[in-house]
């Protein structure tokens, strides 16, 4: 809830209205398109109408003509063609599409899928020897082969021609095959580079249909092509969008017997088939064939004409997928235990985790889950007989394939792309591989790359949350990588109701905004219920969805992330920073401290002060403004906002110490910590507003007065009549003690102190905040009533001492006495 960076692209209202009119879309869709950098009305119209006739000419691909001519020669001469695929969904569907077409025109044909465990990824020397012994005259690879330079040479040396179709990244050297069809070749002019392996196999089929004058019969294979395209997580834009959009429609009425039978297991309620269903329900069953056994079964499923065979394979793959889930869960538990029990992983940007006997078929999925959990690139390796084989998954900003290229001298084999890769190495090279890989990461990744980012398309108004908006957004489907379902920022809404559902796994909320309410559901977000309360004001990132209940359709928010509203966050930061600087203050300002000349001479009329502040934040001098109250900070921010139209300098806000010292502008320092006021760059320093402790201003003033900057005090007569909720009273501490005692389980209480403070305030109807709660806990600890252990600034575990006998007095706490200093400057 607190560790993700939200990125919301701001778009101008005038631009939204203009695009909405030109492209004939709603303002909501116009905002989304503009946020994604799209302002071309013709592109938008084409995007919203992904027609098959917009697919590119397959002969634009380098070597496509050579490949077609050689295949036609093989057909004419009756030569045997072998299709060499891969064991994942992309490889299986690629093989199936090409096999179904070639077999339909009577080609002498066979296919080969390497075993994931015994053979490994791609073409190896062992599988190359197998190819040679199969008696074929032509080999066509699908979804692999672009890295198999020596293996291709070996196959050619045995008198066999080879055509490579692949979509993976190319190394500097490509194989010396008869044809290498890969749009990522540097010399390939094909306009769309992001096809999956199955997309390129489909293009080969389309080219063959053209030369054989078979018309557009290749369209019927789009259902299988769609499965491989979605499963391989390629961007759903351009041709991929056209393929998937049309393929999903064909899939609903597929004529492929194997797919029919598989859908009986995956879609028993006959729901609409979506990219989500393909990615998370259909594809894992196909993958189970290669992960848990022989992937050839999946090819047989999609190529058989026998319904009984298809039924048997579909049922078997569903059973094996369940077994895969169980094995995967066990491996993930082991991996997480290794990571959590070894501090070395905390400082590394890439986590390399190895273990004995982990199932090769599922470690790629495990790597994905671990990467998602820690938001770090992760490679998981299984060791057998001194050989490590594994898979890696990456995050945005780190190219996994290039990282492996930097370590290739230590690898026996590797391949992949930016976000995922497979590799093999000797166990003796593991330590050096880990070092080189992380050295590459240190040189190519910034710390900010390790912070998960939530990319938001647009801000959402309450009047845009309706069924019409949902229908408009659906026009942008199919959704996936490159075209995610739009995310919206819905700001400063009140939680009217909050609960968990699904065995506390999911979060269910009702939000209220200007008298109108809307439901929200957060899948797998039930843990956030500990940090939120009804009546909280929050900002939410969400997508829009339709919820049907009792045949009634309603718009709802599908929650992706939640943060406290800006006001609550500012309050948290204020009290946290106040707590950080208070120690120095209470130690250095005593009851007998009388040197309050700064305060005595500083009070002025409010209007006169505001005029001066406005001048200071808008002239050419660099100004630092020091405040010690939320109210004062809010006033400075408001004055700066009101001058926005003619403002010369930006306002930098920081807590306890100076930041951005080299930036020209105004720096607002909230709760300045005297220990951090050693050096700064400014023309003037302004003391403004309310201050919580008599003498605090003098301490800060005396620390700064030797500096070249001019020191100015602007304390208004009106402000000093106000108050801040920092004065800790006996009643506050008693209430904190009662709450901890009542809510401790086995004498232990865990929680977020911000949330605990608000719960105490609601339950006991008193003013309570982070600062007062933390100081109360420290005082109670000083008195021996409890022990507190802090995980970070906000999370605490409290051991309640239930064995203490007799009464104790707050007068026995030196901290309590010192904190009585905290009163408003009078």
UniProtKB/TrEMBL annotation:
<feature type="domain" description="DDH">
    <location>
        <begin position="80"/>
        <end position="229"/>
    </location>
</feature>
<dbReference type="Pfam" id="PF01368">
    <property type="entry name" value="DHH"/>
</dbReference>
<dbReference type="InterPro" id="IPR038763">
    <property type="entry name" value="DHH_sf"/>
</dbReference>
<dbReference type="InterPro" id="IPR003156">
    <property type="entry name" value="DHHA1_dom"/>
</dbReference>
<protein>
    <recommendedName>
        <fullName>Single-stranded-DNA-specific exonuclease RecJ</fullName>
    </recommendedName>
</protein>
<dbReference type="Pfam" id="PF02272">
    <property type="entry name" value="DHHA1"/>
</dbReference>
<comment type="similarity">
    <text>Belongs to the RecJ family.</text>
</comment>
<dbReference type="InterPro" id="IPR001667">
    <property type="entry name" value="DDH_dom"/>
</dbReference>
<dbReference type="GO" id="GO:0006281">
    <property type="term" value="P:DNA repair"/>
</dbReference>
<dbReference type="InterPro" id="IPR004610">
    <property type="entry name" value="RecJ"/>
</dbReference>
<dbReference type="GO" id="GO:0003676">
    <property type="term" value="F:nucleic acid binding"/>
</dbReference>
<dbReference type="GO" id="GO:0006310">
    <property type="term" value="P:DNA recombination"/>
</dbReference>
<keyword id="KW-0269">Exonuclease</keyword>
<feature type="domain" description="DHHA1">
    <location>
        <begin position="348"/>
        <end position="441"/>
    </location>
</feature>
<keyword id="KW-0378">Hydrolase</keyword>
<dbReference type="InterPro" id="IPR041122">
    <property type="entry name" value="RecJ_OB"/>
</dbReference>
<feature type="domain" description="RecJ OB">
    <location>
        <begin position="456"/>
        <end position="561"/>
    </location>
</feature>
<keyword id="KW-0540">Nuclease</keyword>
<dbReference type="InterPro" id="IPR051673">
    <property type="entry name" value="SSDNA_exonuclease_RecJ"/>
</dbReference>
<dbReference type="GO" id="GO:0008409">
    <property type="term" value="F:5'-3' exonuclease activity"/>
</dbReference>
<dbReference type="Pfam" id="PF17768">
    <property type="entry name" value="RecJ_OB"/>
</dbReference>
């Amino acid at each position: 809830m607190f560790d993700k960076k939200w990125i919301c692209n701001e778009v101008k209202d005038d631009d939204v209205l203009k695009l909405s009119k030109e492209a004939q879309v709603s303002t909501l869709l116009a905002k989304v398109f503009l946020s994604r950098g799209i302002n071309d009305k013709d592109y938008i119209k084409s995007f919203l109408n992904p027609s098959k006739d917009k697919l590119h000419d397959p002969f634009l691909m380098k070597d496509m003509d050579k490949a077609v001519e050689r295949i036609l020669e093989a057909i004419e001469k009756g030569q045997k063609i072998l299709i060499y695929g891969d064991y994942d969904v992309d490889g299986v569907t690629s093989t199936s599409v090409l096999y179904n077409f070639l077999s339909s025109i009577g080609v002498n044909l066979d296919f080969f899928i390497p075993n994931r465990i015994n053979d490994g990824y791609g073409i190896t020397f062992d599988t190359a020897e197998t190819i040679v012994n199969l008696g074929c005259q032509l080999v066509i690879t699908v979804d692999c082969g672009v890295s198999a330079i020596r293996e291709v040479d070996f196959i050619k040396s045995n008198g066999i021609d080879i055509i490579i179709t692949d979509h993976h990244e190319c190394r500097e050297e490509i194989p010396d095959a008869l044809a290498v069809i890969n749009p990522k070749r540097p010399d390939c002019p094909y306009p769309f580079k992001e096809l999956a392996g199955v997309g390129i196999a489909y293009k080969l089929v389309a080219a063959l249909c053209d030369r054989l004058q078979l018309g557009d019969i290749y369209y019927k294979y789009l259902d299988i092509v769609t499965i491989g395209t979605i499963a391989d997580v390629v961007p759903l834009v351009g041709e991929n969008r056209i393929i998937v959009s049309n393929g999903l429609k064909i899939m609903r009425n597929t004529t492929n017997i194997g797919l029919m039978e598989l859908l009986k297991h995956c879609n028993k309620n006959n729901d609409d088939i979506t990219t989500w269903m393909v990615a998370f329900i259909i594809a894992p069953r196909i993958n189970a064939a290669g992960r848990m056994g022989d992937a050839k079964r999946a090819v047989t499923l999609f190529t058989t004409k026998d319904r009984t065979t298809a039924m048997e394979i579909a049922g078997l793959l569903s059973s094996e997928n369940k077994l895969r889930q169980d094995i995967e869960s066990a491996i993930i538990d082991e991996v997480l235990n290794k990571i959590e029990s070894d501090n070395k992983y905390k400082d590394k940007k890439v986590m390399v985790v190895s273990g004995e006997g982990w199932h090769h078929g599922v470690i790629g999925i495990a790597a994905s889950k671990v990467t998602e959990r820690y938001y770090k690139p992760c490679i998981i390796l299984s060791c057998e007989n001194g050989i490590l084989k594994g898979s890696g998954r990456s995050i945005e900003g780190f190219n996994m394939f290039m990282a492996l290229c930097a370590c290739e001298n230590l690898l026996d084999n590797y391949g992949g792309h930016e976000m995922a890769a497979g590799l093999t190495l000797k166990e003796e090279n593991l330590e050096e591989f880990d070092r080189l890989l992380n050295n590459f990461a240190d040189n190519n990744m910034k710390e900010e790359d390790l912070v998960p980012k939530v990319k938001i398309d647009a801000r959402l108004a309450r009047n845009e949350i309706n069924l019409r908006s949902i229908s408009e957004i659906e026009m942008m489907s199919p959704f996936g990588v490159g075209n995610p379902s739009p995310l919206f920022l819905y700001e400063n809404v009140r939680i009217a109701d909050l609960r968990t559902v699904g065995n506390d796994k999911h979060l269910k909320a009702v939000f209220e905004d200007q008298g109108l309410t809307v439901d929200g559901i957060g899948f797998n977000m039930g843990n956030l219920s500990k940090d939120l309360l009804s009546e909280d004001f929050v900002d939410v990132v969400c997508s829009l969805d339709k919820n049907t209940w009792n045949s009634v359709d309603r718009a709802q928010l599908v929650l992706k992330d939640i943060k406290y509203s800006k006001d609550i966050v500012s309050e948290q930061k204020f009290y946290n920073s106040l707590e950080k600087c208070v120690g120095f203050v209470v130690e250095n300002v005593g009851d007998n401290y009388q040197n309050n000349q700064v305060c005595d001479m500083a009070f002025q009329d409010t209007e006169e002060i505001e005029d001066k502040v406005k001048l200071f934040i808008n002239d050419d001098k660099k100004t630092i403004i020091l405040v010690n109250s939320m109210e004062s900070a809010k006033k400075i921010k408001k004055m700066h906002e009101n001058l926005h139209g003619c403002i010369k300098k930006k306002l930098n806000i920081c807590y306890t110490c100076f930041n951005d010292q080299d930036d020209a502008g105004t720096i607002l320092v909230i709760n300045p910590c005297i220990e951090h006021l050693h050096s700064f760059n400014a023309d003037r320093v302004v003391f403004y507003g309310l201050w919580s402790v008599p003498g605090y201003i003098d301490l800060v003033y005396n620390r700064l007065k030797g500096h070249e900057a001019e020191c100015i005090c602007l304390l208004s007569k009106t402000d000093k009549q106000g108050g801040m909720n920092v004065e800790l009273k006996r009643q506050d501490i008693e209430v904190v003690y009662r709450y901890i005692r009542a809510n401790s389980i086995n004498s232990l209480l865990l929680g977020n102190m911000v949330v605990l403070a608000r719960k105490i305030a609601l339950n006991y109807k008193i003013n309570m905040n982070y600062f007062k709660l933390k100081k109360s806990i420290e005082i109670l600890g000083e008195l021996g009533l409890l022990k507190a252990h802090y995980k970070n600034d906000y999370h605490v575990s409290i051991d309640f001492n239930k064995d203490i006998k007799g009464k104790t007095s707050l007068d026995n706490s030196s901290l309590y006495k010192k904190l009585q200093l905290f009163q408003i400057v009078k």
